[in-house]
Specification:
The complex is a heterodimer. By secondary structure, chain A is mainly alpha-helical. Among the domains of chain A are: 195 residues, no CATH class; 74 residues, no CATH class. Helices cover 74% and strands 0% of the residues of chain A. Chain A is built from 15 helices and no strands. In chain A, helix 3 crosses helix 12. The longest helix of chain A is centred in the N-terminal third of the chain and has 29 residues. Chain A is globular, with a radius of gyration of 22 Å. The two termini of chain A are 14 Å apart. The radius of gyration of chain B is 25 Å and the shape is globular. Chain B folds into three domains: 238 residues, Rossmann fold (3-Layer(aba) Sandwich), CATH 3.40.50; 189 residues, 3-Layer(aba) Sandwich (Rossmann fold); 64 residues, no CATH class. In chain B, helix 4 packs across helix 5 and helix 8 packs across helix 17. Helices cover 34% and strands 27% of the residues of chain B. Chain B is built from 18 helices and 24 strands. In chain B, the strands form six sheets. In chain B, strands 6-9-10-3-11-12 form a six-stranded mixed beta sheet, with helices on both faces. A six-stranded mixed beta sheet of chain B has the order 18-21-22-15-23-24, sandwiched between helices. Chain B has a four-stranded antiparallel beta sheet with strand order 2-1-4-5, covered by helices on one side. The longest helix of chain B is centred in the middle third of the chain and has 16 residues. The chains are: A mainly alpha, B alpha/beta. At the A-B interface, helix 10 and helix 11 of A face helix 10, helix 11, strand 20 and helix 13 of B.
């Protein structure tokens, strides 16, 4: 009965068992390769790559929060409207009332937290379905954004605030021509650090007698990981260097990756999604944690709204419309389960990138927005069907 | 009299477990035939065979109804002949009206449009037959349980019932409602409608039944013609429980110490019907090294009692006092109960005990992650070490602790749940049906674990519906019925007959007398 799940001996067995976790990454590479060829190399041009990052940063940021919500078995439809509303609040504060940028920034994150708390309160403690509460939130904050902007676009933002999205990290070694060596260096350091930590954890597991991936496979994987990071760092470094927002994004991905896999609170969140009643009978404060995941989502939606407003350099009443769909799709393409309890931060990030690359690639190819939506919808359905099929097997 | 139903030589097994063995069962026209037996004796299985839930070919033997052999493919086939079963859990839709519920499947209609006048009129007629005066458009949710039960019967009448099967119809009814329901059955008898009454309440069985058949371990062991001979409760009880103790139980010499867990005047109300007292001012005590059994039938309130103690995980308007280790505690949340040293191993391990998608390790550490974490960060190696220790100690058979818990057998899953609670290092463990649905070998291992816990000085409470198990494992057995303790026996004086009698008589026995017996 249980024989099938036991790791098969030898290398092929290990790869077979772990194919699913790498499948998503491989699909991303396949999609990138496809568009790289179809666009005659435009996709991976340094300028386009930087744009790709900037265009999708707010989706990735919100996908981190959405993943936690989906893992607890809920959904948040309001994130797009909340992001738009917070962008509007930022504009009103900084442009109309000339509030200093750091103060306004913190105030906006607090507004996001309050919105998340207001919605999470009804969901967690009153057991009102999240679909309904956040659907209401979606309408409320879309309307409020329109109201406080009086239906008009407000801008431009102070230059320091614009730097959040359009800025790049300062260059420590200027004068190296077209290349930005600091960014390349950071990329290389990051790559080394990643390979080092995975080697260390592999050695630690082996010393405890846990089955680890075969050495050859590990070396190959590390080499590919290293090469890919350095390659992309090189591309980024040949156009103005690392964008500020990429630094923020990477830090957040690392933080949420750590929280979900290594901390007590992360484990508890997965337990709620896996079996809420068993979790609560094990002493886990399911209501409070559900509430906190919504507060967290509110803060991340606010951050995303700020990044988006800074990028457009204006707050418009329509900002954020439809973001929630991309964010939710990213999580599900990345392997999160609609029934809760299953999903990974890495998966959600890759899901967001798949959506981003497809948007970008199809735009370069001149495919109209109409068919772009059709294709994205089909990819979402296909990815989830494949996942369900894999799980049944 | 002529037989309306004859079941001949019916046998049925589930995955190697013989649920029915060569059962013969006959119901005559206009007879009320009571079917009694312990939980798991095979009553429900027999009725499922009769109603076509288990289709022809799924069982051995034959069913003769109305003089012809019948081969039902599903419930519709048996309903077409007028065999209607009313389950313990009512199958009414609460937010629909009485009339809509009665005519749910076959509403009188013209061209697909429901004929509301006919529905209304016929509903009124049917309600009059069962003695209800409610309006047909009253919502079912606005009726009490007793009246809902009568609506079910009206629904059966609408299908031209010839044989009505009632599965513990009075379990959740008060005395007046029960009496009203039984009167209906007696009225139907004069109209030639036969009934099969499954009940644990011997007093009501004795009142209405024409014949009583006793099932035990899937066999008919006794059948009493109530009109020819007197109904002796003792005879019925003996038939119900008299069996060889097939299991063997590991030996333990109890060293019983100071009280470790005491409950006084514990009262709990139902979370939905807030006026209904489910646990009625109960006192309870467990000593160090003592295994206390709680016997009772399903619905007696044992699980509700246990869960309400465990950080108020069940019930509303809870009152009473709890002492753990002679210190009064206020267990207002599950987390507080765990911290105070109480553990509750649920009867429903799949729904309430485990995260089946998660691996063995995560399930074992779920209730005490802080023990393998520092500043909120899980030390995965120490977690692995602890989980592996429990795997070895409890002999959990799995490929490794990273195996999905849902893939394990019932016995191994139960050991995972036990590991989870042992890891919290409790002073008192409440085990709710700890051996339900697991095989004999795993049961023995669970009994050994219980013995080890008692020997380690913990207080163990064991709720079980299997009496031999209680007799084999416990130092003391309390009998619960209808939310109160109705009997208490030491291991030496307890017998299945005594326990069953305490349940069946459903009389409050003077507590002082019992406790006098208990501690000489």
């Amino acid at each position: 009965m249980t024989d099938k799940t036991v790791a098969l001996p030898g290398h092929t067995g290990f790869i077979k068992n772990n194919l699913r976790s790498y499948g998503m990454l491989l699909s991303l590479f396949a999609i990138m390769l496809f568009f790289q060829v179809m666009t005659d190399g435009t996709l991976l041009q340094p300028l386009n790559l930087t744009n790709l990052v900037l265009q999708n940063s707010y989706i990735v940021i919100m996908a981190l929060g959405m993943l936690l919500i989906i893992v607890t078995g809920h959904i948040d439809l309001s994130v797009g409207s909340v992001a738009g509303f917070v962008g509007a609040v930022a504009a009103v504060l900084m442009v109309r009332y000339h509030v200093a940028y750091p103060l306004a920034f913190i105030a906006c994150l607090l507004v996001g937290a309050l919105i998340g708390a207001a919605q999470g309160y009804w969901i967690a403690y009153f057991k009102i379905p999240s679909f309904i509460v956040t659907l209401a939130g979606m309408l409320v904050f879309k309307g409020l954004a329109l109201a406080i902007l009086a239906g008009q676009s407000v801008g431009p933002f102070p230059p320091t605030f614009q730097k959040l999205s359009s800025g790049f990290i300062p260059e420590l070694f200027p004068g190296a021509g077209t290349l930005y060596p600091t960014s390349l260096l950071i990329g290389a350091v990051l790559a080394v650090a990643l390979v080092y930590t995975s080697a260390k954890s592999r050695a630690r597991q082996a010393s405890h007698g846990i089955e680890v991936e075969p050495f050859g496979f590990f070396v190959a994987k590390s080499a590919v990981l290293f090469a890919v990071i350095v390659f992309f760092a090189g591309l980024i470094a040949s156009h103005r260097g690392l964008p500020n927002v990429l630094v923020i994004m990477t830090a957040l991905i690392a933080l949420y990756g750590f929280v979900t896999t290594r901390t007590v609170i992360g484990r508890h969140i997965y337990a709620i999604g896996g079996n809420a009643r068993a979790a609560s009978l094990s002493g886990i404060k399911t209501e409070r944690l559900t509430f906190l995941t919504f507060v967290n989502m509110g803060v991340l939606a606010a951050l995303a709204g700020l990044v988006f407003a800074a990028r457009l350099n204006t707050a418009t009443p329509k900002a954020g419309a439809g973001f929630e769909l991309d964010v939710i799709a990213a999580c599900f393409i990345g392997g999160a389960s609609a029934y809760g309890g299953v999903g990974k931060v890495g998966g959600a990030v890759i899901g967001a990138m798949i959506m981003g690359v497809m948007n970008n690639g199809m735009s370069i190819l001149g495919i109209g927005i109409d068919y772009q939506q059709v294709i994205k919808g089909l990819v979402l359905l296909g990815a989830v069907c494949l996942d369900v099929y894999n799980q049944r097997r | 009299m002529t037989a309306i139903l004859e079941m001949r030589g019916v046998s049925k097994s589930f995955a190697g477990v013989q649920a029915l063995r060569d059962v013969n069962f006959t119901v005559e026209v206009g007879q009320i035939h009571a079917l009694v037996g312990e939980n798991g004796a095979g009553k429900s299985t027999l009725m499922k065979v009769l109603s076509g839930v288990y289709p022809y070919g799924d069982y051995e033997g034959s069913i003769i109804f109305d003089g012809e052999e019948r081969r039902f493919r599903d419930v519709n086939d048996s309903e077409a002949l007028g065999i209607i079963i009313i389950h313990q859990e009512l199958a009414l839709i609460p937010l629909m009206s009485i009339a809509e519920n009665i005519f749910l499947s076959h509403p009188p209609s013209r061209l697909g449009v429901i004929d509301r006048d006919t529905v209304y009129r016929r509903t009124q007629e049917l309600l009059a037959q069962v003695g209800l005066t409610e309006m047909p458009d009253t919502l079912v949710t606005d009726l009490g349980v007793g009246k809902q039960q009568l609506v079910e019967i009206a629904k059966a009448l609408s299908k031209r019932v010839r044989l009505l099967i009632l599965d513990e119809p009075t379990a959740s009814l008060n005395e007046n409602d029960s009496a009203a329901l039984l009167d209906r059955l007696l009225a139907f008898r004069t109209q030639g409608i036969a009934s099969i009454l499954i009940s644990h309440k011997l007093s009501e069985v004795a009142r209405v039944a024409d014949r009583i058949t006793v099932l035990r371990d899937g066999r008919t062991v006794d059948s009493i013609d109530c009109r020819a001979e007197p109904v002796e409760e003792d005879r019925i009880i003996r038939s119900m429980v008299n069996r060889d103790l097939a299991h063997r139980f590991p030996q333990r010499t109890a060293t019983i110490g100071q009280p470790v867990f005491a409950v006084q005047d514990w009262t709990v109300h139902h979370p939905l019907h807030r006026d209904r007292r489910v646990i009625k001012g109960v006192d309870f005590e467990v000593r160090r090294g003592e295994v206390v059994g709680i016997a009772g039938l399903m619905g007696a309130g044992r699980t509700e009692f246990a869960m309400s103690l465990f950080g108020r995980a069940w019930g509303e308007r809870i009152s009473g006092r709890i002492w753990l280790d002679r210190r009064e505690v206020n267990l207002s949340s599950v987390a507080a109960a765990i911290d105070a040293g109480l553990a509750y191993v649920t009867e429903d391990r799949k729904q309430l005990g485990l995260i089946l998608d998660a691996d063995v390790r995560k399930n074992i550490t779920l209730a005490s992650l802080d023990r393998v974490a520092r500043q909120g960060m899980i030390d995965d190696m120490s977690e692995l070490r602890v989980a592996s220790e429990y795997r070895n100690r409890m002999r959990i058979r799995c490929s490794d602790v990273y195996q999905e818990t849902g893939q394990l057998s019932g016995g191994n899953q139960q050991k995972v749940v036990l590991s989870k609670w042992l890891m919290t290092d409790p002073k008192v463990l409440i085990l709710d049906e700890p051996t339900r649905g697991i095989d004999v070998g795993a049961k023995y291992e669970i009994y050994c674990i219980i013995n080890e816990l008692a020997e380690a000085g913990k207080g163990v409470v064991m709720i079980s519906s299997e009496m031999p198990e209680l007799l084999g494992v416990c130092d003391r057995i309390c009998v619960m019925n209808d939310g109160a303790f109705v009997g208490e026996f030491t291991a030496a004086e307890a017998t299945q007959e005594r326990i069953m009698r305490a349940i069946m008589r459903n009389k409050k026995i003077d507590k002082k007398v019992l406790q006098g017996d208990l501690r000489p």
